């Protein structure tokens, strides 16, 4: 019996190898990119950090209670990149991307904005689908070369439809 099993083992191995060599593997499927859709979005920003050179513990605790909700018309370019100023919200105007990476539902970007008498720089990082975003943001406001404010937020957003005419 032992000799019969040993003699039979090479046959399935040879048949298996023959089957492998005869067919080519299917070509890998190219992943469809995830592109944000422009339109009407509801954006919620919850303050998770607030720091100024003279912040008191009471001011810090009060800032942590802030939750902002906005309904905005978010423009998105042909590559799925959202408008920088809209993402900045109240923390900057006339924003531009210093750098950005949007790939497979992941967004990492740095925005440079005007902010009152100074500038603000926002770092965004998080995930997105075509109609949702979940980002962490860190903003540093500079006036006269000095950092005067740093905030952090948890931002969630969802597309609710087309922009009003």
Explain what the structure shows.
- This protein is of the alpha+beta class and 165 residues long.
- It has one domain: Lipocalin.
- It is 19% helix and 49% strand.
- It is built from 4 helices and 7 strands.
- The protein has helices at residues 2-8, 10-22, 57-63, 84-88, and strands spanning 39-51, 67-74, 93-103, 106-115, 118-128, 132-143, 146-161.
- A 7-stranded antiparallel β-sheet has the order 2-1-7-6-5-4-3.
- Strand 5 (118-128) and strand 6 (132-143) form a beta hairpin.
- The radius of gyration is 26 Å and the shape is elongated.
- The termini are far apart.
- The relative contact order is 0.19.
- The model is unreliable at 11-19 (pLDDT under 50).
Major sheet description: 7 strands, antiparallel
Count of helical regions: 4
The CATH class label is: Mainly Beta
Task: Give the neighbour order of strands across the main sheet.
Answer: 2-1-7-6-5-4-3
Q: What would the principal axes of the Cα set say about the shape?
A: elongated
């Amino acid at each position: 019996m032992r000799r019969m099993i040993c003699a039979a083992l090479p046959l399935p191995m040879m048949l298996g190898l023959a089957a492998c060599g005869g067919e080519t593997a299917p070509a890998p499927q190219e992943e469809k990119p995830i592109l944000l859709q422009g339109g009407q979005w509801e954006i919620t920003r919850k303050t998770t950090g607030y720091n100024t050179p003279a912040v008191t513990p009471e001011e810090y605790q009060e800032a942590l209670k802030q939750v902002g909700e906005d309904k905005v018309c978010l423009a998105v370019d042909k590559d799925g990149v959202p408008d920088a100023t809209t993402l900045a919200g109240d923390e900057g105007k006339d924003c531009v991307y210093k750098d950005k990476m949007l790939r497979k539902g992941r967004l990492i970007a740095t925005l440079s904005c005007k902010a009152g008498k100074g500038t603000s720089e926002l770092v965004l990082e998080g995930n997105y689908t075509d109609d949702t975003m979940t980002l962490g943001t860190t903003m540093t406001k500079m006036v006269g070369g000095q950092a005067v404010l740093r905030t952090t937020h948890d931002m969630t957003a969802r597309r609710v439809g087309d922009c009003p005419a």
